[in-house]
Automatic annotation (TrEMBL):
Entries under InterPro entries matching the protein: Uncharacterised_YcgJ (IPR008617)
Keyword annotations: Signal
Pfam family, one: YcgJ
Listed name of the protein: Uncharacterized protein
Signal peptide, first to last residue: 1-32
Length: 137
């Protein structure tokens, strides 16, 4: 009789394991929020929102909610002018550029510029204008 319990026990365990994997997959995909632009000149992921001036608590509250903003901004001071979104894109408001990631290559050069996210966040500055002039400073 005990032999007939093993398939049932293993089957129940297998069903539980499959259900746990299903829940875990849903949790992971729910956290992997794409970077999006809810308004002109604003980029958000699941944790922060930023504009041409950097990470903004007000924009984060507006587009992601007060709970997420409180969680993000209660972790202590951080540099609001250089930040990495959850998809790995790195933006620096001092350069008015977003890059594919925040890393340097073996030659000490930053990753390539992300034209898409630079345009979404900073727009197209006038030819020859400095970053600060394009930002109105």
């Amino acid at each position: 009789m005990s032999g007939s319990r093993w398939p049932l026990a293993f089957g129940a365990f297998g069903a539980f394991a499959a259900f746990a994997l299903f829940l875990a997959a849903g949790t992971v995909s729910a956290r992997a929020v794409d970077v999006h632009s809810p308004a002109a000149g604003v980029l958000c992921d699941g944790y922060i929102c930023a504009d041409k001036d950097g990470v903004s608590q007000g924009l984060t509250e507006r587009y992601l909610g007060k709970k997420i903003a409180a969680r993000t901004f209660s972790r202590g001071p951080f540099d609001h002018s250089a930040f990495t979104f959850s998809n790995g894109v790195f933006c620096d408001v001092k350069e008015c550029l977003c890059r594919e990631d925040r890393y340097f290559n073996a030659k000490g050069q930053r990753s390539p510029v992300s034209a898409k996210y630079t345009r979404l966040l900073f727009g197209k500055p006038a030819a020859g204008a400095s970053c600060q002039a394009a930002r109105g400073q």
